[in-house]
Design a protein that fits this description.
321 residues, 3-stranded parallel sheet
């Protein structure tokens, strides 16, 4: 679970550092107070450890870029305190024109530390420059396909192709305004992104902290089996669903890019015949993916949660003025 540390609308830039530290302190306190169910994680290994213990891993972030106060020293301090994802939006050094020199230094330092860049809501020039510069995969923590549903955070197909090239990760939000009002609409989004970026570059984002409308029958993570059943009916391989719900986030958390796997570059994938998959029948499929009894919520607990919303919407990334 990514714990969003974004600041609410109306915060003043001179208070961004202190406000983010307050949010981070609160998040750490809540996690520590609920150690029987939550587990603070900083690495892919610790996320796997939490899952094996039957607890929900909590990764702190994304936080807004304004939290740095234009200081790499603050970036390093936030990393030491546990921040693992930073949104590169809402600041002069990662704006409509792209990255400034300080912005490029920030990306390099994030790579060195192991902090993930979140590019949802970033401008197209910023996205392209970060994807070129970063030596690690980046995250689009709440972005769907603009071709299916225009939205400020959704990505056009040319940027989805760049996501594939850099082995980054586009996480489709369960938000009606971005992905559509029904389970089939979310499945359409996942199909589209998988077709362009590949099954290694698509994930799910609950975004249950926003207060917005959710697709019907996807009101919380317990409803994920309905979506998974729809994907299996459409011919998704069980291994692809395992990547969607677990493996792809783990790969991004591990850091530096590795060559694309043979299965993603050797032409069309063989399709498993469609079957009458149901939500109730998914437990057997999960056993096949993991070889053990599933821990409730663990594979699908990738929802964003936090004390604040996501900020103001802009234009669709990559769209014309």
């Amino acid at each position: 679970m990514f714990w969003s540390l974004h600041l609410p609308d109306g915060h003043t830039p001179d208070r961004a550092v202190a406000a983010t530290l307050d949010h981070l302190d609160l998040a750490r306190t809540v996690v520590a107070a609920h150690g029987e169910g939550l587990y603070p994680a900083r690495t892919a290994g610790e996320v796997a450890d939490a899952r094996n213990r039957g607890r929900v891993a909590v990764l702190f972030g994304p936080a807004t870029a304004a939290a740095l106060g234009d200081s790499l020293g603050v970036l390093r301090s936030l990393y030491t305190l546990g921040l693992r994802v930073l949104s590169l939006t809402g600041v002069s050094w990662a704006g409509p024109a792209g990255l400034t020199r300080f912005g490029e230094e920030t990306v390099r330092e994030m790579n060195r530390l192991g902090m993930i860049a979140d590019l949802s809501y970033a401008s197209a020039p910023t996205i392209r420059r970060v994807l070129t510069l970063s030596k690690a995969p980046v995250l689009f923590s709440r972005s769907a396909a603009c071709a299916l549903r225009p939205h400020p955070a959704n990505l056009p197909d040319d940027l989805l192709a760049e996501v594939a090239r850099t082995r980054s990760l586009c996480m489709v939000p369960l938000a009606a305004e971005q992905s559509g009002p029904a389970v089939r609409d979310v499945a359409d989004q996942l199909d589209h992104i998988r077709a362009i970026a590949g099954p290694e570059c698509v994930g799910l984002s609950g975004t249950y902290d926003t207060g917005g409308a959710y697709p019907r029958e996807l009101a919380d993570p317990s409803c994920y089996p309905r979506l998974i059943a729809e994907l299996l009916r459409r011919g998704w391989e069980e291994s692809e669903v395992a990547l969607l719900t677990w493996g792809n986030v783990q790969r991004v958390l591990r850091g530096p890019r590795s060559p694309r796997t043979r299965s993603s570059s050797a032409g069309p994938r063989p399709r498993r015949p469609s079957g009458n998959w149901t939500a109730e029948g998914l437990s057997a499929a999960w056993d096949a993916w993991t070889g053990r009894t599933p821990v409730p919520r663990a594979p699908w607990a990738l929802a964003h949660r936090g004390p604040a919303g996501w900020g103001r919407m802009g234009r669709c990334a990559g769209s014309a003025d």
